[in-house]
Each structure stands twice: as structure tokens, then as C-alpha cells.
Amino acid sequence: MAPGIIATPSTRCPSFGHIVLAVFLLAQGLDGILTYIGVVAFGIGVEGNPIIVALMTHLGHGLGLLSAKIVAGALGVLLHLFHIDSVVALLAGFYLMAAVAPWTVILFF
Q1: Contact by Cβ (8 Å): 28, 21
Q2: DSSP class of 83
Q3: 32, 109 contact by CB (below 8 A)
Q4: Per-residue DSSP letters for 25-75?
Q5: pLDDT 10s per residue in the chain (109 long)?
Q6: Which of 1, 17, 34, 74 could form a disulfide with 103 if both were Cys (CB 3.0 to 4.6 A apart)?
Q7: Exposed, middle or buried, 87 (CB in 10 Å: 0-12/13-18/19+)?
């Protein structure tokens, strides 16, 4: 593994990982809620992720999104448990910028 990506418990701030995980899970939740609102308002064609579209097509909008967000959240928790908090932080930032922010603009502005 690349040096510096995995921090040992003695070298990382104990609260950093918990804060990052909370932000990541919040971003997942917001993305799920906003995606659901967007799909209900504009149709399934507005969703850009083909995996999410397939899940929503086969399982329904709510269950498809919920299953995707549960898997994403679980993987984020797994990364956190392995002390790979820098990746969780990058993913949280990515979701906030690439999913939550665009949906917020589309739905509310």
C-alpha cells in the first residue's frame, strides 16, 4: 500500500476519522434524499449514474436508492475501520461537490 494513506492510530487525530465518517454518511444521506426528490420531480432520466438507474428500475426508486446508499455507507464505514480516513475524506468531498451541490442547485435555485 502507498505510504501515508493508512495512518496508524497513534499518528492520526482520534476525532478526525469520526468527523470525516460523519460527513461522508451525511453526504450519502443528502445525495439519496435529493436524488429521490429529483427523480420524482423530473423522471428517472435525470439520474446520471447507470448503476443507480438500473437499481431504481428493478427495485423501485426508493428501494433502489436506499440499497445503493446502504452499500456506499457500509463501504465508507469499512474504510474508516481500516483507518483509511483520507480516502473517506476524499469521497465525502467528491459526493458533496459532484452530487449534493448539483442537486441542490437543480432543485432549489
Answers
A1: no
A2: T
A3: no
A4: HHHHHHHHHHHHHHHHHH-GGG---HHHHHHHHHH-HHHHHHHHHHHHHHH
A5: 555 565 555 555 568 999 999 999 999 999 999 999 999 999 999 999 999 999 999 999 999 999 999 999 999 999 999 999 999 999 999 999 999 999 999 999 9
A6: 34
A7: middle
User: For cell 463501504, what's the residue?
Assistant: 75
For the chain, what are the domain ranges? 15-108
How far is Cα 45 from Cα 4, in angstroms, rounded to an integer?
Answer: 41
Position 36, amino acid: Y
Specify whether the CB–CB gap between 80 and 6 falls below 8 A: no
Q: Which residue reads 433502489 in cell numbers?
A: 64
